[in-house]
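Form 7-S
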Amino acid sequence: MSDERTTNPNKTVVTVVGPAGAGGKKKASREACLVVIYGEDLGRRIPLADEPVVIGRSSRCEVQIDQESVSRNHCRISYNGRGYGVRDLGSTNGTYVNDELVDTMDLRDGDQLKVGRTILKFIVGGNIEGQYHEEIYRLMTMDGLTQVHNKRYFDEMLERELSRARRYERTFCLILFDIDHFKQINDTYGHLAGDAVLRQLGTVVRTHVRRDDIIARTGGEEFGIITPEVGLHGAVELAKKLNRLVDEQAFEFEGTRIAVTISLGVCEWDEAMQSTQAIVQASDEKLYEAKRTGRNKVCA
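Output:
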């Protein structure tokens, strides 16, 4: 199977071409649904069948998303005889699939559809019920926008790491960081651009930490990294690397380059820290120092 992509400056049209099945037609599974993985009604399941499903701000839409960034009739999901596809309905802010602005596109299992600030995951297959429950379980530990862990999981892992460090006398560090002047990014470019920056930042960071490190989004533009069995020197080196990578990264939204920097605070656990709150507070103080003394830097 291959893709034929036709791109103009603003839209992408994707057509799936594959070998014909019996009778010259390729039969696709019609058991499918959308699951809200980011936004209001998190975990909501939207079954897909024969009738088209229109997503938009209007109360007449089959799926209503009441956000200013969503058009009254934003996009339509429909079955085309081979599978399900999405068509943008001339929306103001566009329809995205896997962060790509599209006009029409055939959907594949696992595709992420972004409408305004809401992200929906397309699920299709023979075991749709099992896949849905797997996704709900994943949502308990992951942030749907950035694709890193959420605060709930982070808090649990920090408690576990503290217990392990105290039991086996093994050190670890906590890195806290956030985006400098993030409110200014939202005010200048809009919240959709801010979401894009957060999503791109999640990709940059999670691809440059060790497998054993635990990264999570702990607040709006705030993140944390737990580095098991890594001392202060190693954690500071990681923080400096991330600081440099973000500074050099070309963050973009709809063709506009957005300058992004982060400030980071690093702290190593010691025996005097008897609670997770103690090490969080120590790391947060270092983060505040980095922001107070100029931002776009690491303090430890």
